[in-house]
Automatic annotation (TrEMBL), chain A:
Protein name: Riboflavin transporter
GO MF terms, alphabetically ordered: riboflavin transmembrane transporter activity
Source superkingdom: Bacteria
UniProt family annotation: Belongs to the prokaryotic riboflavin transporter (P-RFT) (TC 2.A.87) family.
Topology within the bilayer: Multi-pass membrane protein
Gene Ontology cellular-component terms listed: plasma membrane
InterPro entries for the chain: ECF_trnsprt_substrate-spec, RibU
General function of this protein: Probably a riboflavin-binding protein that interacts with the energy-coupling factor (ECF) ABC-transporter complex.
Localization per Swiss-Prot or TrEMBL: Cell membrane
UniProtKB/TrEMBL annotation, chain B:
Protein name per the record: Energy-coupling factor transporter transmembrane protein EcfT
Protein's membrane topology: Multi-pass membrane protein
Keyword annotations: Cell membrane, Membrane, Transmembrane, Transmembrane helix, Transport
UniProt subunit comment: Forms a stable energy-coupling factor (ECF) transporter complex composed of 2 membrane-embedded substrate-binding proteins (S component), 2 ATP-binding proteins (A component) and 2 transmembrane proteins (T component).
Gene of this entry: ecfT
Amino acid sequence: MHKGKVYKMVAVAMLSSIAYVLMLLDFPFPGLPVFLQIDFSEVPALLAAIIFGPLAGLAVEGIKNVLHYGLIGNLTGVPVGEVANFISGTIFILPASYFVRKYRTTKSLSGGLVIGTVAMTLMMSLLNYIIILPAYTWFLHAPQMSNTAMLNLITIGIAPFNIIKGLLITALFVFLYTRLAPWLNKQAQPTV
Amino acid sequence: MLDNIIIGQYLPGQSVLHRMDPRAKLSAIFLYIIVVFLANNWLTYAIVGVFALFTIALSRVSLRYIYKGMKPVILIVLFTFILQVLLTREGAVLYDLRWFKLYDGGLRQGIFISLRLLYLVMVTSLLTLTTKPLDITDGLESLLGPLKKIKLPVHEFALMMSIALRFIPTLLQETEKIMKAQMARGAEFTTGPILQRLKAFVPLLIPLFISSFKRAEDLALAMEARGYRGGEGRTRLRVLKWTGKDTIALFVLVVLAVGLYVLRTH
């Protein structure tokens, strides 16, 4: 879509707004710890990253999390969860954005999303182990978790959570994008 | 489904806190968070607490709203309290049941952590209670201004934040309208197997996205028609004003921080 810089900026803002609203509609997934909630706020970010480029996707992820921190607040007073969400979302959307913008096929979309899911799961497991879980225990002043306890939580909670979240969003987004693409392509043509 | 979501909790008022510059409030909150993490004994926790109560009194916000803001975290506070009491084994034994001993250190640790969480929630919710969301983004833009020097798009980011904020209520309304329209046609959002529920989301999201793109087009056109050309040299309807009370507030917080650093147990 080539409609100028202002349009791009406003559209990204609108998508961030949708992302924030979708973030509020989160739900726990049966069988996973309750503090890991699934939401579809990655969908507008993906759309922004595919239509306007990776930086736009990054902006949606950023604005959504800043709004969430500012409007809802955080239990530790320090935005650990928001930072985690920002990192995981960014890793998830970038591969899909790259492949779709390069090859423009449905296969590249689903392939990119699956790669994103795998990358997000690996990265978040690692980050939880070295930064996020220790940060939570430090801010809540909970007793330090032992390395095996953290590994346990990661293998039964965090890794499956990221895989399930990634696959659910992949399924939803493929449904959505195949129906939305014709309209988007029509918009991209010069009208005047 | 969407009724009980609060968007911004600003309460109009004329108190000192309401009239303070958002930049001063943001910096003060930032300092306060650091100060709360400095506290580590009875005296310092008491000082930080008195300060929190004093700011609440200054804001003239009724305690009912403060309590409402704290409700979601009370469960978490209780949970961490119990965890601390059960798992810390320090100090003298205060109470001895056969299967569980209550330690002096555990109780103290539990009270401290619960207080820390409560203070943080109380003071940060005061910010949103006494400051309009748009003033907060204006304040942020101004505070982050120096980052423009290293080519970070601070103005664009702040503008996108304001637009996103402005359209949250509109979008909530629209989501609800579309949901009702689809439900009237027999759509089910809350029952059925996962894959079916996912598919039910698609006819909800497509109209939402398309109408947002159209709205973005209108807004961009309106902005360009009014001569919007980016942040450079843009004038404002509401100009932030830094006054004496802002300087005093920051000064008080710096004194508080230094005082706490001296009084905390090293």
